Structures are given as C-alpha cells and as structure tokens.
Known about the structure:
Number of helices: 5
Number of domains: 1
CATH topology: Sulfite Oxidase, Chain A, domain 2
CATH superfamily: Oxidoreductase, molybdopterin-binding domain
Helix content: 10-25%
Mean pLDDT: 90
Bound molecules: the ligand Nc1nc2c(c(=O)[nH]1)N[C@H]1C(S)=C(S)[C@@H](COP(=O)(O)O)O[C@H]1N2, molybdenum atom
Amino acid sequence: MVTFIGRIKDKLIAAREKKARENRLLCATPLLGDNARNRLPPGQRIVEKWPVLDLGITPKLDPGEWRLTVDGLVENPCAWSWPEFGALRQSSITADIHCVTTWSLYDSLWAGVSTKTILDLVRPKPEARFVLFRSYDGYTTNVPLSRFAEDDALIATARNGEAIGPEHGGPARVVIPSLYFWKSAKWVRRITFAAEDAPGYWEVRGYHNDADPWQEERYG
Ligand SMILES: Nc1nc2c(c(=O)[nH]1)N[C@H]1C(S)=C(S)[C@@H](COP(=O)(O)O)O[C@H]1N2
Ligand SMILES: [Mo]
C-alpha cells in the first residue's frame, strides 16, 4: 500500500516537472514575471524614463497659429484651431510604448481626442483605406485605416496629467499603442485619408511598413 501510493506520488511529481520544463521552453523571457512576460514584445527591454527620439528639429509652435487639418477621402474635411481642438470630446487611455530601437515604457496615461471621435466627425468615404500623418518638422508616417481606428489610438495632448512637452511632440501628437512608436507622429499637422498607401519618412528608409511589435516588424 505504502509503495503503491509512493509510486503514484512519483508519477505526479514527474508529470509536474515535465509540465514545468515545457512551460520554461515556452517563455521567451524567463527572468520576468507572468505579467511582464505577456506585456513585453520580443526583443524589447523595459526603460523607466521616456527617451526623446526625432529628426533633431523641435518645431516652435505658436498656439495661435497651430492647426490640425484632416482631409483626403472624407465626407467632412476639418481644420481645428487649438481652442477648437480642446473643445472636442476628450478621452484617455493607458498604454505601453514600444520603440523599434528596443525600449519599452509601460503605463502612460494619454489624454486627448480619440481617433474614433475624429472618424465620427470627418466620416471617411468607403474608398479610404490608409492614413498619412504629416508633422510640423516635415516628418511623415503611414498606417492602415484599421490601425488608426483602433480603440486605444488618439491624438494626445497630455501624458500622466501633464501637457506633452515640445520635445515629445506637443502640443498634440499621434499615439497608436499597437504599433512601434515611429508610427506615432509628433507635432501632427495634417491627417490625410487615401485609397492608396504612401510610405512615410522611415518607411522609405528601410523600416517595415506595418510595424507590429508582436511580429517584430522592425525593418524591411
Ligand atoms: N514628427 C515626428 N514624429 C516622430 C518622429 C520624428 O522624428 N518626427 N520620430 C518617431 C520616432 S522614430 C519615435 S521612436 C517616436 C519618439 O517619440 P518620443 O521622442 O516622444 O519618445 O516619435 C516618432 N514620431
Ligand atoms: Mo524610433
């Protein structure tokens, strides 16, 4: 009887150890906790401070002259001044940043105007399938309309309760959390809806057109 129970226990322990071994093989980043592992895309590392990355030009934007224009294949093209933009319905979301240069920053609370709100106002035509962002520093980047329309995408004016500073693309920048951060245009000036895709600044210089961090769509 004792040896019978003993053998069952041995079997149970062996089965558990096998399961643990298999689980270990499934983990790309075994040193992180479960939560961190599921949040961190492959090849990324966590940073605590928010780095600044751009072309080296920080446009000086006078609030009186700032405009955000939405045009192209839309029923109702719009151009908002700063007070008009502030009067649009405001939303906030919490999201992680993943930069192609391998840093990830967790938990930014972004506030601004949801892309859903913009879509409701401008009403893209059925032929519209792509979105091109143009910025005040000359930068451009492109996304499919489906990415632009994601629930957590927004034109952000504040992060963690503070206005976004000029170095990070203030007064208003794009934030599309599901894509590498180069798709999130700082100092956004114009949003154009189109039937055809038009690769942007980094996309024509070897960056991947799609930029999904979970698929490691970094270059090429
Ligand atoms: N207008 C503009 N937007 C831009 C860039 C830029 O050079 N100009 N750089 C992109 C890149 S490569 C990254 S990684 C992020 C960096 O944003 P951050 O400086 O706020 O961290 O902005 C993106 N948006
Ligand atoms: Mo970047």
